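Q: How would the C-alpha cells look for this protein?
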Amino acid sequence: EDTFVLSWQQTPDSLSFSVLAHLLASHPDAALPLIHDWACYRPAIIEFSGVSSVSGLFQRDAVKPTIDPDGSVDYGCIDELLLLQPGEYRISGEFGVVTVAAKSVSVELRAAG
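A: Here is the predicted structure in C-alpha cell form.
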C-alpha cells in the first residue's frame, strides 16, 4: 500500500519497477518519517527475474504521470502484488494489470536519497 511507481523497464528476461516504497513502522529499516511525509518512504527496486512472459503492461508514454508540487513525478501506487500460483504473479496499478511468468521476484531497498 502507498508505494509509488517511479518507472518500469522490461528486458527479454526481466521486469523491474523503480518505486518509492512505504515501509511500515515494524519494518527493520523503517525510520521516522521526514517532516513533509506522513510515513517512512525508501527508494526500492521490485524485480521479476527469469521472466518468460508479461501481459497487460502499458508503455510508459501511454500512462499519464502525476507531477507533485515539488516537481517529482510518479505513476500512481501499486494496487496489488500477488502470487497467483508458483511462478506466476500479478502486479497492478496505473501501469496496467500485469501478469508475469517469472522464476522469482525480489525487492531491494536502496539508500535513502
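DSSP finds no helices and ten strands in the chain.

The beta strands are 4-11, 14-23, 40-49, 53-55, 66-67, 73-74, 80-85, 88-93, 96-101, 104-109.

Upvote if useful.
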